[in-house]
## 1
Amino acid sequence: MDLKFISNAAYAMRGLAVLVFVLITSETFSYVFSKTTNTVNIAAILSKDTSNGKITTFAMKAAVDNINSDPNILPGKTLSLSFHDAKISVFLNIIGALKFMEDDIVAVVGPFISMVAHVLTIIANELHVPFLSSISLDPSLSPFQYPYFIQTAPNDLYQMTAIAEMVSYFGYRYVTVIYTDSDMFSNSMDALGDELRKKRCKLSYKAILPPNTSSSSLDVIHNVLVNVRSMESRVIVVHAYPHAGLLVLETAKRLGMMNKGYVWIATTWLSSILDSTGINSTNAQMLQGVLTLRPHVPDSGQKLYFEKRWRSLSNGSIGLNMYGLYAYDAVWMVAHALDKFFHQGGNISFSGYSRVTGSKGTKRLNFVALRVFDGGKQLLTNLLQTNMSGLIGPISFISDRSRIHLAFDIINVVGNQVRVIGYWSNHSGLSVQSPEPLYAKPSNRSYFNQHLRSVVWPGNTTERPRGWEFSNNGRPLKIGVPLSTRFNGIHELIMDIFLAAIKLIPYQVPHEFVMFGDDHKNPNYTEFVNEVANNVSKLSIE
């Protein structure tokens, strides 16, 4: 896939970060801060007020407690975890990262916003501090361009591949997408477009939500959905922040767009909500028949034990979702990499910058507090060589830094429950069988090997929607009818036959009859055929 999707906003933020670090490196000298303490500092950048922020906070604290109580990992060391609440703010994410670079931090879990990741990874590259994220899954975050950034969950290229294969499996050819206007979402939509083209499908319409969509934006969402409703495609993919995604589905319900005939596919934002809050009487109706994906996590004793402990870990305040599992495992990944680092003879030391001078006569910028982690390159290597079993299953990385065994559950919301109708994996594609047994078999992505269980679609029907309707502003089907004097009344017979036939079609076909001839002499059939051909040519050009 050609990862060509870097927006102007990302370039601007990168430019800002590059400018900062050009200034930093313009006048520096190194000196070493050696750490004699037995405390090893790591950090997390998150948005505590969000559901995922709360869940990952509980999960990471539990991981640190378990690591520090385990004599077999980091013996003689204490792992310390600091949190920075970035409040879904680009600026606060950057400030948090710079703050941590003053505190002898050796690794960071985060950020939670892919747009910020483009900037923070420049900081990570410069100061040699690995960043690990299971939420910033922008496909354009190339490991070659951002070597100190590790995506611990499947990046969105894989999710978009799964959606494209679902669309093709159900026989649809045109897809409408509704997404938040930011790099993370737009880059993922570009990836979806690429994957759909491989299946001879296409994105027929893109509807964009403002990045700060909230309850005060209902008029904007309403207008977006009215435009979507006027299009022919009835297959709609929603890729947005969780709160915005729910507002889209809620508004769609009011507009009659959750009825029979529609296909709604929500990305993993919806499954994260369903896992953490469940389905209640408020959202049950608007979610009926919706399909969503969830990163696949195989059942294990380790996972089941953690799920049992979750209520006490979270004080019963919120349910556990996949991001909590990923965050827990990310802390353990760092612990194992550090344990290996110390066994390799590594020690925690930092090289610091003195001061930065701008042009002659300008005020000096003091970056003396920023420090380069001298062991960062080795720790990064250890992280990429991870080979462990976590809550999410086996964890190791292949050459492109994607995790082995990438898979998703495909979920159908029915009543107040979720049904797993199948799985997608990068090994076998769509299957009703759990991916684990298939990994031991040769990969088979053939069309005839793709299977999903039956779906209950919007409108509480098991009949697969056609996936399109004539748009409100579409052209009616034009039927040419010759006015023949040789066979009086033949044109009426032609129209009657057409009307009888069209009644057999289970949907409306807007149409109009176009008479050819003057009803005084027989029409020239060569001219009639040419007229039809000319009209077809005009339509194809338009």
## 2
Amino acid sequence: MVSFNCPKYAAIFVFLAVFVFFFVLFNTDVLEFQHKGSLTFPVPRRHLTHHFCSFEPLSPEDALEERLLLDSIAWPETPSLPAPVSLEQTTDPAHSRFTVLPERGGQQWHVGDQLEVMIKMYDFRGRPKKSGGDVLFARLHNRALGAGVAGKVLDHLNGSYSAVFSLLWEGSAQVAVTLVHPSEAVTVLKRLNREQPDRIRFQSVFRSGSVSETTTCNICLRPTAQPQCNFTDLTTGEPWFCYKPKNLSCDTRITNYNGGYQGKLEVNENKLFKIGINIKVSIRPSGSSSVTVLPKNKDQPEVNSNIVQSGPVGYYYKNVWQSLSGPTVRQFNTPSVINQCLKGKMVHLYGDSTVRQWFEYLNQALPDLKQLNLQSSKKAGPFLALNYAENILVTFQYHGPPLRSSSISAIELQYIANQVDRLVGGANTVVVFGVWAHFGTFPTELYIRRLQTIRRAVVRLLNRAPDTLVIIRTGNPKTVTPAIAMSNSDWYSLQRDKVLRAMFKGLNVHLVDAWEMVLAHYLPNNLHPQPPIIKNMINVILSYICPQKSS
């Protein structure tokens, strides 16, 4: 046995004690970060942007990507607003018009051609707008044929816009153009995310025995004299903070929930967000809004190559989604056909309630797929369903904070990157995720960083199991009310949609383009698309899992 009374050991222990003291002194930030939930004093903000939003420094590579992504989605400059705001000089959809341009050379339109529409915006006095930045959606459709395709809008930065459509079916096709937001409203939306990223109030309940306290939480938590609990994820570095309860420790947090909206507009800015006035209002045509499309010319290819490269990813015909850039979309109309496709598969769904819809669809469409009772929240999950005979497993897990959900157990707040890192993967594993709807109130930098952590996990998964199928759901347009515009505007979703596509471009992953599938459909835009659209989305997913065999 060694005696610790020896002077040389005493010297060693003194040295170690001094070393530990200085290590703790100079690495306080690291220790605070690593001891999740134990922080009981204000969080030091090391890298500040957007007022009080705290972000960890990025690697040089990630920082460059972030800057390039932000540059790529930069919106045209929008007008500064006078105080108080007046509608007179803002975009008025009632005065604005669109015109279908004649086919070049005066020839008739054929399947495979492109149709161009010129849109001219005016203000409430009927004067032409001189700048761009309005948010416009365009669609070409034929309700009788169950046909529809999204158009691409180009801002000329002078008050005029072009919308271009691919002509993909024979017969009548009608143009529809919608003003989602005037450019002046975008000015407000930008400012809200810059100055009020905490306008959705998240709250957590802390409980120990009979003592219970509720405090406010957020990624962007305003510094006050009140101490904060640091719930930053140890693995991904995703930040989350709560004000510390007065009488309880940070370790007693048990639930998280949406505490309501608390944003504020400046005087008269609410005029820019009026239903029927300037939120998702149809723009009328100058002349006819319809064209007649003839069969394709004999010497014309089935689909013009430039349509595939720069046009829509697909379109509806007879209410069925037809893909132009992915696999042939098969129709899975019976439980037996779906079961045959999913036989032996593990399908893991991660994301928000728009992904939960897919779990609910499969659970209802497959009588033999039995959902286990996990005693979890009916809306937030997690969920697990099993068909033992066919060896089919389907799971759903909400993504981590921020979540505008009803109460969810804090222990169930799992980040997608961590979930993906726990998967073995392989040819029988399908990973599906969608992350978009809960990020509208935050700076785009936060969304970029969340996707970067998920992408790293996806790359690791594909490196260890290249046969794993990864499918990503994009965001989609929705019904926009004044309240929704403040927190979940289609403009916010559009910006994040661009980031998502760029972030995963070039990886062996597949997209379910919910954006175009909702925009092109005759049903009203909805955060949670209606059943006919969900069925088409499920057919796209199953077509990736079980592609049509080549003859």
## 3
Amino acid sequence: MSQPAPGPAPAPTRGRQDAGVLAAGSLVAGVLAYVFFALVTRTLGPGPAAPVAVLWAWWGFAGAALTFPVQHWIARTTATSAGEAAVRRGAGPVVAAVVGVSLLAGALAWLARDQLFGPEGGLFALLVVGVGLGSGLLGLPRGLLSGRQRFAAVGLGLVAENGVRCAVAAALAVSGNDTPVHYGLALLAGYAVIVLWPGALVPRRAGSGTSTAPLRFLSGASAGQLLAQATLTGGPVLVAAIGGAATSVTALFAGLALFRAPYTLALGLVSALTGRLTRLLETRRWATLRRIRRGVVVATVAAGAVGGAGGAWLGPPVMELVFGVGVRLEPGDAGLVALGTVFALANLVLTLGLLVRDRAGAIVGSWLAALPFGAAAHLLLGGDPLTSTCATFLVIEAAAWLGLLTAEWRSDRLVRREQHRGAEG
């Protein structure tokens, strides 16, 4: 059986330059996201900024549920023989799904407008729809640019997106504008960067146009990323729900924000990983894929040991340095959170590995299977709400890691077995 030839690789020098720009862009974009929110809170104050904070939280979930799946579906599809022609063919259902999810989120936001957004709730509900549509649309140029291996453009786009938000928010602050909905519009303005690369808004006709059903891929990827995002960011909500002190809620929020900085950086960097893994799979480079999987295991164990110890030692003083005196986790709690974020980063890589194998359902299954372990840990530990929540976060991430790793191994084993039977037949 003939093997499809791998696509042309970029020149080594250009590849290194693009990787550097993508890495720098991911880092700067992550910093600018926090600069934008800092501008909002410092200009409006903690109370008036609350509706913008809710919209900002939805922006994070929309990125996980819409931008990430659309981007990586396109990057994966274009790395196969299906090509961009399959993206053109599958665009209709994808657009309909993005519009449907955005309208549903907007309707729910409108029903709870007073509780979520206060007096300007109706306008913010419209912004919720806009953020959903913008997030889905943003996945198109990111995916096509990634598929065309234009990673420098992806990195520059990440910076431009949050740079526009910061520029608009700064202009509003300088002008003395204190209307929360205008800062919500500043958040929405970031999506205007899609016009910077108009050629990446229209898929080409190259390729066979035949690929797996996009909605199955997108629904599984969206559900998996939502569960991952909820695990990564939901700790403060759990602490508050079980009666933890307000200082504990703030401390855990700050700790998660600090320790997930590498995860935020990796979200941009993995743009280059989807296509590479897909090409390895298409050309049946099983030995290379096994080495990558072993590398993930070794890196997780090593980084977990260093990150857990380093988090316990340096986490509390660094938190106070960044967020202010008194905003800190105890060393044990900081170590748990740091170790949990190491697993979260590894889970992101394993998630991409399963996505390129068209095993989105296994991603969801791994996260759902991990949740009971977290619940059991929380019940068994009891005691201090903050410590039990930090431990629950770590247990869920570690259990999901085991599930994702096992699912990837079983997927490759099954495919190799089927190919061996086909060769014998």
